[in-house]
Specification:
By secondary structure, this protein is an all-alpha fold. Helices cover 64% and strands 0% of the residues. It starts with a helix and ends with a helix. The structure holds a DNA duplex (13 and 12 nucleotides).
DNA sequence: GGCCAGGACACCA
DNA sequence: TGGTGTCATGGC
């Protein structure tokens, strides 16, 4: 499966290294990972700005807010009622099981930390892997809608694979490297978000010659 | 005014 | 196990 590294190298050459995740602290990564579920990042930024102004970017403060106060702060990110509940559930778990320490949760053996995250309501596989990789600097590859879309176009996926199948494919064929996983996911997002949907298609698309979408539409 | 965005979950057959 | 409805805001 050298195709995966070939694709990575092309994206890296074209876009250059990205600095990810767009957050100032590991805890902010968690907040962003939950708020960005099926939501445009611009809306997430508005919500995080509100939390920052309210000095509510910590587990203790989020737990001490009323659910209504938290809902209003994160309202721009959409789905604000369920996301407010999810944020408080995560913070409560952190408090009860790890003395409020995100580091203690994330420094456990990878599979154990991942399973613990997945047991929390509102933390699915993509959110868990984003937290592990970008907040915990643990080698857990993040799969998202862009990953499935892009690699289906490249013929590497069929489009019917489940989340864990895709994650395991990448992890089986790539070096076990936090830096590589970090960069690869970031490059997939920047490629799909800013370039791959442009019409007319970007003439210097780094994957142009191997992308089925480009070939069908050119 | 419709479509979409860096998902997850409940419910049903 | 797979398909479908729900959750909600803001930019284009």
């Amino acid at each position: 499966m050298t195709d995966l590294m070939q694709t990575y190298n092309r994206l890296l050459d074209h876009y250059g290294p990205r600095v990810w995740w767009p957050a100032k602290t590991p805890f902010e990564v968690v907040i962003g990972a939950i708020l960005t579920q099926n939501t445009n990042w611009n809306n997430v930024e508005k919500a995080i700005t509100n939390l920052r102004r309210a000095e509510a970017l910590s587990a203790d403060v989020i737990l001490n807010l009323s659910i209504e106060e938290l809902e209003q702060l994160i309202r721009p990110s959409g789905f604000f009622r369920q996301k407010a509940e999810r944020l408080q559930l995560f913070c409560r778990h952190l408090h009860q099981s790890h003395q409020g320490s995100l580091g203690k949760l994330l420094e456990q053996p990878l599979n154990r930390a991942r399973e613990e995250l997945l047991q929390l309501k509102g933390i699915g596989p993509e959110t868990a892997d984003s937290i592990l990789l970008y907040a915990g600097k643990r080698p857990s590859f993040v799969v998202d809608a862009y990953t499935g879309r892009l690699f289906s176009r490249l013929g590497i996926l069929t489009g019917t694979e489940k989340y864990d199948q895709i994650r395991e494919l990448f992890m089986a064929h790539l070096d076990d490297s936090v830096q590589l996983y970090n960069e690869y996911h970031a490059l997939i997002v920047i490629h799909c978000k800013d370039v791959c949907r442009k019409k007319p298609l970007c003439p210097d698309c780094p994957l142009g010659d191997i992308c089925a979408y480009k070939q069908q539409n050119s």
